[in-house]
Amino acid sequence: MNISKTLMPLPALMLAVLLASCGGSSGSNQPADAPAPQATTGSIALILTDRASDDFAEINLNVIEAILIGGEGVSQQVLFQGIEPIDLLALENYSEPIIFGEVNPGIYTKLRLVIDGLELVPVDGSPSIYPPLPANGKIDLLDPQGIEVLPGRTLIAEIDMEANKAIHIVGAGKSKQYRFRPVVKATFMDGDLGVLPDRLARLEGKAGMIDAAGSFELCDLETPDSCIDVATNASTSVFDSDGLATDFSTLLDGDTVVVIGNYTVDGSILLNAVILEIGGNAVQIQGEVVNDVTNDEVLLLKNDGNDIVAELQAATRYYDADGARDITAVTLGAEVEVEGVHPAGDADRIRAALVFIEPEEDEQLAGTIANAPDATTRQFTLSKADLSEQCVEVGAEADVLLVDTALSTVTMGMFADLAQNQVVDIFGATVEGACSFLANEVIVDVNASP
Length: 450
Description:
It contains 1 helix and 31 strands. The chain is an all-beta fold. It folds into 4 domains: 4-25 and 37-193, no CATH class; 200-278, CATH 2.40.50.140; 283-357, CATH 2.40.50.140; 363-448, CATH 2.40.50.320. Strands 19-20-21-25-24 form a 5-stranded mixed barrel. β13 and β14 form a beta hairpin.
């Protein structure tokens, strides 16, 4: 298994969406005291992310189309048509923008993605697997409340492909087959109200329009006209091409850089940099911590029998799924992903810019809901394949997905949509108490359920 992965480039799709649909007037001949023109379009950002899978080294696919489909009186908006290759496993701890652009306001009924070229690359080096895609790769993401785009506002759609749940294994041994079911979760957020993705974004491109105050423009390597504004501040950790801490003044126009940060919305989408890596040679290495971290100098990792030394610096940042942490969050036995640069080409050593502490994997149950779910306790009994029963409590913040593989649709549901005799996959953790499994996600197989 290759323990290093180069960072994925900033997608060529940014800002490349139907500019012909944008409205408004120039107002160049208006008097000075004329009121500002009202916005006639809204903005949308599609942010792609994923969950881990231990079975594969890569899960590759192409996003070839993205469409907002309108309700009554609202025409559909084609957001993208083309080919955008994605390795879902590179998005395990980060998000990647697919589209930033403007669309006509309205309430849309679904967001349709079309994908092709699904390739599973096993970790054991065996040949790649190419599972068939349902509905010719079409995946419809539905929200019962509608998907509303408001004039002058930015709607952020975070699309979680959940590859570890979408890749379904049928059979065992030599008869084992892999099938893809559309377990894709869409979360819609109003960026202008400060509702933004939790995950760090990671983008690679070329720096330009550098302002000594700490801002610059990041443009795609393949499509230089596709750009996003980046802001840094005194807390941004900056690293040079050798992986050593430096400062913003060393950034030059045309430098290839990696930016890791968070989005904000203030009229347009801005990427606030937590980490800025200059040089374009950053890699990621995953492994298990095998030493007690008693100082800020060395972190020892074990990865598939390889010993990796991570050099920690004062500027190294620490994160987990809940946000920023410090070095005390890195504990013996923890699974981590280290972002940084190999010094002098030494593949067994990395100068760390970021240490990401991986979350513990969810436990999984599968079976049939044996009784009518109780809306007060949010509990039901699960009948498993071995005929044993398990009490399940669905957490207040848990997601419910209604997955129809035949139609290739995913509807975001709620506890009230759960019913007796539904066939479900449940993810969560064993807890103490009479009802000993707490679910954070319930996936309903619509086709197998009454």
